[in-house]
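User: Hi! I have a protein structure encoded as tokens and I'd like to know what sequence might fold into it. I'm fairly new to this, so please keep things simple.
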């Protein structure tokens, strides 16, 4: 048993297997170098909590700062791996608590050769000139928007400066492809993240009422998640009431919930590094108004349609187009678009974007907006969100309904069956209020 972890770790054999697959994609003579993420400063001596580099975690299971994975790849996918760790000492143990011992790191990762960081430079001086190709971590996620340099980017630049003759290759496309299809061990972790996400919300549902602060809902969810062994929210929770249900990334959660308004909760728990991601939209009073219910049922119809067509072999972009066609019909029924507007672009009604401005699905895994190729084909073992929404700013009504699903051979499995989806089930759960 690993006593420093809140979660049940994936057995080391999984990480050994992932490194085997990665090595099988690389030519003999390759050297893989992946670093942990930095601990980012705030002010004075403050820091943000450490969040591990997803690719390093995916290949090692090590959730600790200042960790480096080195893999020397030989013929036919053979590889020798070295893990470098921050050396622990008495002072660190007193102030910060235990860090991984070499033995525990081996137990978690399956890597026998674990060394301390003071050997880093000498080791690179030995391994880099001997390597034919260097394979390093870069973050090419299309939605990344920060310009802060990561630890990997900084140390990749240092490598280039120290060894100008060596070419650096990006691991991103290979790892993105690998991570898109989840292994059974990962599906187990995602199941738990999703179970916690749904259970924590369903437990809070009867306690939600008008006059409550959006922050109180956030606090209740946080308690319900942490007591189920989540480390934290998997992203900043959106608890948006009233007109702010139409603000897609509202995160200030600062208002009191007005009577008669909707509350949109886009929330998720993180378990063992894996993310849940769920949205439910509920009536503050415990009963939807007729118009709210009309919009709710339109979104639910789109949700059910999306779940019905998501299956192996379908291209993601084609899936999104089909959903726009279906969504257009719903928006006409709601009186928001005219049939003429829709007919003018019947094959791909981009006019729906006035009320539905985001995509329906993104992959889910170690990252909330998980990695993958630009336009993947759905396949068994992938985990995706399904999250259509309709946002009518002029009416102050925004509804999004989101579940996470595992793609099976012949359809999808809802990973959050424990949170109510139908309007009537939400009303029934809220009617049980204490
Ligand atoms: Mn989502």
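Assistant: Happy to help. Inverse folding works backwards from shape to sequence: for each of the 434 positions I chose a residue that suits the local structure. Here it is:
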């Amino acid at each position: 048993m690993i006593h420093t972890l809140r979660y049940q770790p994936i057995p080391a054999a999984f990480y050994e297997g992932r490194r085997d697959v990665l090595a099988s994609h690389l030519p003999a003579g390759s050297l893989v170098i992946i670093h942990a993420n930095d601990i980012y400063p705030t002010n004075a001596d403050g820091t943000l909590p450490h969040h591990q580099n997803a690719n390093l975690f995916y290949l090692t299971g090590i959730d600790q700062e200042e960790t480096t994975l080195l893999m020397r790849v030989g013929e036919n996918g053979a590889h020798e791996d070295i893990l470098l760790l921050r050396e622990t000492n008495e002072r660190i143990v007193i102030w910060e608590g235990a860090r991984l011992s070499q033995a525990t790191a081996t137990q978690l990762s399956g890597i026998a050769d674990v060394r301390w960081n003071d050997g880093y430079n000498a080791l690179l001086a030995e391994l880099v000139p001997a390597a034919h190709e260097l394979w390093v971590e870069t973050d090419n996620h299309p939605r990344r928007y920060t310009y802060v340099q990561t630890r990997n980017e900084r140390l990749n630049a240092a490598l280039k400066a120290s060894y100008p003759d060596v070419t650096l290759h990006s691991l991103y496309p290979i790892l993105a492809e690998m991570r898109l299809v989840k292994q059974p061990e990962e599906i187990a972790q995602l199941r738990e993240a999703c179970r916690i996400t749904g259970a924590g919300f369903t437990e809070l549902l009867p306690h939600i009422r008008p006059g409550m602060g959006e922050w109180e809902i956030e606090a209740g969810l946080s308690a319900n998640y942490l007591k189920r062994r989540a480390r934290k929210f998997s992203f900043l929770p959106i608890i948006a009431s009233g007109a702010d249900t139409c603000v897609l990334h509202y995160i200030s959660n600062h208002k009191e919930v007005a009577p008669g308004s909707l509350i949109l909760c886009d929330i998720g728990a993180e378990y063992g590094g894996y993310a849940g991601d769920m949205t439910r939209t509920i009536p503050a009073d415990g009963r939807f108004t007729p118009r709210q219910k009309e919009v709710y049922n339109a979104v639910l119809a789109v949700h059910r349609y999306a779940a019905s067509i998501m299956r192996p072999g379908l291209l993601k972009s084609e899936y999104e187009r089909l959903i726009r066609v279906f969504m257009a019909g719903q928006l006409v029924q709601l009186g928001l678009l005219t049939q003429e507007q829709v007919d003018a672009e019947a094959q791909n009604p981009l006019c729906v974007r006035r009320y539905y401005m985001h995509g329906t699905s993104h992959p889910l895994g170690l990252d909330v907006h998980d990695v993958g190729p630009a336009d993947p084909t759905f396949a068994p073992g992938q985990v995706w969100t399904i999250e259509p929404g309709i946002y009518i700013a002029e009416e102050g009504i925004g509804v999004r309904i989101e579940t996470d699903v595992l793609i099976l051979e012949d359809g999808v499995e809802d990973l959050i069956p424990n949170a109510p989806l139908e309007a009537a089930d939400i009303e029934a759960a809220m009617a049980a209020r204490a």
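A useful reference point when you look it over: The longest strand covers residues 79-85. Feel free to ask if any position seems puzzling.
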